[in-house]
Structure formats: C-alpha cells, structure tokens
Amino acid sequence: MSKQFQFKLVLLGESAVGKSSLVLRFVKDQFDDYRESTIGAAFLTQTVTLEDQTTVKFEIWDTAGQERYKSLAPMYYRNANCAVVVYDITQASSLEKAKSWIRELQRQADPSIVIALCGNKLDLAARRQVSQEEAKKYADEEGLMWGETSAKTGEGVSEIFTAIAKKLPQTAPPSARGGAGRPGAAARTGVDLNKQATAGPGQTEPCNC
Amino acid sequence: MDEEYDVIVLGTGLTECILSGLLSVEGKKVLHMDRNDYYGGDSASLNLTQLYRKFRPDQAPPAELGRDRDYAVDLIPKFIIANGELTRILVHTDVTRYLEFKQIAGSFVYRDGKISKVPSTEMEAVKSPLMGLFEKRRAKKFFEFLQSWKEDDPNTHQGIDLDKHTMSQVYEKFGLEPGTQDFIGHAMALYLDDDYKTKPARPTYERIVLYTSSMARYGKSPYIYPLYGLGELPQAFARLSAIYGGTYMLDKPIDEIVTDADGKFVGVRSGNETVKAKQVVGDPSYFGAGKPTEGGKVRVVEEGKVIRAICFLKHPIPGTDDADSAQIIIPQNQVGRRNDIYIAMVSSTHNVCAKDVYVAIVSTIVETDRPEQEIAPGLQLLGPIYDKFVSVSSIYTPTSGGQSDNIFITRSYDATSHFETVVDDVHDVWKRMMGKDLTLQKRNVEVEA
C-alpha cells in the first residue's frame, strides 16, 4: 500500500504575475492568453505521484483577488502546509511584493510551512528584469525553495510542484499527514454538515438538492 | 475605485458576508468594504492583540495567556443550530469546504440554584432531576404529541389547532408544571421571555422540532461550532463572494453615503474618492447608528440593548461535568427577570484559545440602568474569573425597507443563542433588494480527482 498525503497549498503574489495561470497549467495543463483576473475559480486539487509511489494531493487555494487591496483573510493562511509565492521575472517590483508576502507568511502561517519562490513568465525571458542569481540568493538566505516557470509553455511548472511534494512529507508536522488542516470530508475529525444524519421523528426532511 | 458596481456592501459581519456571497453568485458586481483591518465586524473573532486594542487600548495582553495567534475570541455569543437555516445555506453554497465544525458538548439549564443537563436522550430524560416522576409521564405525552403531529391528519392533533390555541392552552392540556413550561419554552424553544405563551402555539411547536431534530443530528447538543471561532463564518462567505468576482477592501474609512437630490443612493465616499453603485447594503454602524445621518435622516433606531461579558476562565464551568463547551440558560423566572441570561462557553478544543483556558460569554437583554448587575447570576456560575471584558451594545433596526432610496440596512446581532434570526435578516434584505425571495441553488462545483 503506497503512502498518501494531502496538503493545503496557498498561492501568493502581486496581481497579474500569473498565479491562476500557473495553477491552471498544473491542474489542467491549459493556458489562456487573455485570462481575466480570477473569477469563479472553485476549489482545485491535483495529485503528484513521487518515485517511491507516494502520492501527494494538493488542495490549492487561489487568492480569488483578495490580495489586491491587502484583504486576505486569516482563514487563507490557516493550516497551509505550503505556499507558492509568485513573481514576474519581467517586473522587478513584483519580486519586492513577493518578499513582503513571504514576510506576511512568516508572521501569519505555521512556522513549518514550506515556501517556494517562483519566478513566472520565463517565456518572456528576453524582457527579464529579475536575474536568476538575485532571486536565488534571496531564496537561499530565507531558506525557501526557488524555481522559474512559464505557465504559458509549461516549462518548470510540474517541476516546482513536484519539488514541493518531495519536501513536504519530511518537513510537515505529523498532524498534517494523511490529511491537511481543512481536508475534504473523508479526513474530517469534526462533524460533517454535508452528511445528512437520520434523525428521530418530527424532523423535517433534509433537503438533498 | 473608478468602476461602477451593482452593489456596495459595507461591513464584513456575517449578515453582510452571506449577502455579498449570494449576490456575487447571482452575478452582481460587488464591492465589499470594511472600516476595520479585520473581517467580521460585530461578529468577528479577535486575537488577543485585537481584543485588548478594542476593550483596553492602554494595556498589552498578559504574557500568561499565551500566544496571540492561538486566540479567536468571539464578540457575540452564538452557536449554529445543527438543523437550522444557516446550516442549509452553508451546505448549499458549498462554503463548508472552508470550514470545519465540532459539536458543542452540552446544553444546560439553571433551576433552583443549580444547573442540569438538558436531556439529549430518553435515557437522560428518565434520569434528569428536572422533573418528578409523574411530571415525566406528562412531559412524555406532550413530546409524543409533538412527534406524531401530522399537518394533514386531524387524528394526530388531539383537538389542538396550532394556529388558534395559545401555547399556554397546550401546556394546560397536558397538565405541565410551570417549571417544565420554563424548561420547554426557554431551554428547547429558546424563547428569551414569556411572551410566546399567549401567542398561537405553532412557532413554539416549530422551534421545539428544530431543537429536537438538531439534537438528534449529532447527539451531544443541538449546536455545532466552527473551529477557530465564529469569525470564520464571515471569512468563508467573503471568500465565496471573492471567488465569484467580489472585490474586497478592508481598512477603508467610509466617510459618507452619497445621495442625490431625491435622497436616492448614489455612492460611497472614502476620503476624496467616491465609488458609485446601484444599491448599498450594510450594517447599522455605517448608517448613523441611531443618530441622524447626512441630511438629518435617521436611518436606524435602537430597539434595545444587550450586555455581553467575555470571561476568560482557567477551568471548565463547575457542574458541567468538565464540558469543553456548553450553553447554559438561566430562564428569566428563575432569577426574577423578564429576559433569560445565557452563557456560551468554548475552549481550546475549538481552537479559540490557549490550552487550559475557557472563554465564556454571559449575555442578556438589558432591563435596567445597571446592566452589569443583571448578569451577576450568570457570572456567579462561572467560578473564579481570570479576566472579563464587558460591553453594552445597542440593537439597531432600519427605519425603512430601502426600496425607495436603494439603501438597505441589516439588523444588529440580537441576544438569541443561534444564527437563525441572522438568516431571517438575510432573507428579508435579499427580498427588499431583489424584489423576490431568495432561493438557494446548489453551485456547480469543480473538483478534480
């Protein structure tokens, strides 16, 4: 029986650096050139299988635009096992924003969180403003993982998520194993509202629609 | 802020966040703002720093209480009744995926100087000291009557018309003692005063059915509670709104509700920016809070006051069998009041405070000009209180429906023990705004394997 882990992954970064595109590429292997800012993105999950047959299921939380006016709720960071902080390699200012998100994570999130700094839009390397050396140096200083990706071509995308998956089961606290803080119904420890209990007489018929 | 919106929502309390989420799902372009830098408004859960900043700006939280981040202290004492309307909305909107719930361990009622568990099973009912042997038989007949009631089968009605007979008449028919009536009306039907007795019995019947079916759903008590505090509820609905395109701005001062010459809503001004929308909805604090607003118009009026005392304890509440969470109801008759006193207690089991700390909120509707004395019978049940934060809040209600000026105002959080009146308000505001009833449709949820 192979091992299975489930983790909550949160995305962070300035608007328009390609957070949603990165997830769309990772989860559906799609890219949309004219993608508007995130609307209606439901709850995405994707599973990575490692060489030793361990499977890592990511429960992915997109910011849903709440980062735009610094209005992300504490709920967003809560029980996050890993974070992908995205910047745009063609915008130097987006790395500065990424650094401030990393400070926010270090303040708000669980200390054991695995953070990956991700330079997106590698397909636009000709207009590069952020050098690999600069970003890598910062990541090393802060103890972060680092990689560059292109959500458009797919380059580096599965690599960065796989790298996170490899790092996770070793670093995450035991409580996160086999189900992250806010997992699907299967791993819940509390009561499940979606499961309708059979109840005594006098109960109005629960609605399943 | 130069865009125009369909709806501006002011305040991120639960009522506003549910409305915001439902409006966004409906396809409305929503801008949601709050003057605070945290979600939840009056229904927020605060960490220690925020709690002290609110109640004691000159004092830092004592180190002894532990880590700031371990705390999520509710400002209003409410639980979710398991089989109620809020649960239905949570499930229908699929907001449950952002939340995790636990049961509240027990429901207790005060009688003759001590507290007893509200029976949750027939076994507990038989052993309960709340009724004598003969009274238990009479009560059994009463509950059998309620359980077997079928609307279209007159044989089950035993000559009672729920829409004509008063609840007093129903109690009399079954010969129930005043103490039992207190227990049924206050600990099960959750009425705050005795006015229900002289009114038709149907609403009481419905409330008892809600209570017993909620009790049956998970077993220990009729209540459930979100881990990390009630403040998670508005955050979860805000996320729903954002996912459907809602724009969020916290920490945004709201300086003026701008209206045209006819008094109709135009937009909201913050500093020197004005953002326009067709409609505005918000909590009473954004609309004068009982005082005249721009143009001398009083948009909300006070209909009463609630006192709430947030108490930190270093022990479970005596007499609750060391329950990690509980509701205790002190029926008004027991302490010579018009309104019940409630105690709502949660603890580290619900991830709202450090280990070995218990957070109890004692509350009641204010009847005198010395409200803190009014809650004394509740405070006395708690044992030694480590620290206490007392507030008296006005309950505001809007003076107009909003259809004439496109200004729709929600109600303040009342003294009831659960969120059903909040959901009633959501339905009411929705109908005023949209001109039709709110019908809940299941979202199409995209979930990959």
From TrEMBL, chain A:
<keyword id="KW-1003">Cell membrane</keyword>
<dbReference type="GO" id="GO:0005886">
    <property type="term" value="C:plasma membrane"/>
</dbReference>
<keyword id="KW-0636">Prenylation</keyword>
<feature type="region of interest" description="Disordered">
    <location>
        <begin position="168"/>
        <end position="209"/>
    </location>
</feature>
<dbReference type="InterPro" id="IPR005225">
    <property type="entry name" value="Small_GTP-bd"/>
</dbReference>
<dbReference type="GO" id="GO:0016050">
    <property type="term" value="P:vesicle organization"/>
</dbReference>
<protein>
    <submittedName>
        <fullName>GTP-binding protein RAB5</fullName>
    </submittedName>
</protein>
<feature type="compositionally biased region" description="Low complexity">
    <location>
        <begin position="173"/>
        <end position="188"/>
    </location>
</feature>
<dbReference type="GO" id="GO:0015031">
    <property type="term" value="P:protein transport"/>
</dbReference>
<keyword id="KW-0342">GTP-binding</keyword>
<keyword id="KW-0472">Membrane</keyword>
<keyword id="KW-0449">Lipoprotein</keyword>
<keyword id="KW-0813">Transport</keyword>
<dbReference type="InterPro" id="IPR001806">
    <property type="entry name" value="Small_GTPase"/>
</dbReference>
<dbReference type="InterPro" id="IPR027417">
    <property type="entry name" value="P-loop_NTPase"/>
</dbReference>
<keyword id="KW-0547">Nucleotide-binding</keyword>
<dbReference type="GO" id="GO:0016192">
    <property type="term" value="P:vesicle-mediated transport"/>
</dbReference>
<dbReference type="GO" id="GO:0005768">
    <property type="term" value="C:endosome"/>
</dbReference>
<dbReference type="Pfam" id="PF00071">
    <property type="entry name" value="Ras"/>
</dbReference>
<dbReference type="GO" id="GO:0005525">
    <property type="term" value="F:GTP binding"/>
</dbReference>
<keyword id="KW-0653">Protein transport</keyword>
<dbReference type="GO" id="GO:0003924">
    <property type="term" value="F:GTPase activity"/>
</dbReference>
UniProtKB/TrEMBL annotation, chain B:
<dbReference type="GO" id="GO:0015031">
    <property type="term" value="P:protein transport"/>
</dbReference>
<keyword id="KW-0343">GTPase activation</keyword>
<dbReference type="InterPro" id="IPR000806">
    <property type="entry name" value="RabGDI"/>
</dbReference>
<dbReference type="GO" id="GO:0005096">
    <property type="term" value="F:GTPase activator activity"/>
</dbReference>
<dbReference type="Pfam" id="PF00996">
    <property type="entry name" value="GDI"/>
</dbReference>
<dbReference type="GO" id="GO:0007264">
    <property type="term" value="P:small GTPase-mediated signal transduction"/>
</dbReference>
<dbReference type="GO" id="GO:0005737">
    <property type="term" value="C:cytoplasm"/>
</dbReference>
<dbReference type="InterPro" id="IPR036188">
    <property type="entry name" value="FAD/NAD-bd_sf"/>
</dbReference>
<comment type="similarity">
    <text>Belongs to the Rab GDI family.</text>
</comment>
<dbReference type="GO" id="GO:0005093">
    <property type="term" value="F:Rab GDP-dissociation inhibitor activity"/>
</dbReference>
<dbReference type="GO" id="GO:0016192">
    <property type="term" value="P:vesicle-mediated transport"/>
</dbReference>
<protein>
    <recommendedName>
        <fullName>Rab GDP dissociation inhibitor</fullName>
    </recommendedName>
</protein>
<dbReference type="InterPro" id="IPR018203">
    <property type="entry name" value="GDP_dissociation_inhibitor"/>
</dbReference>
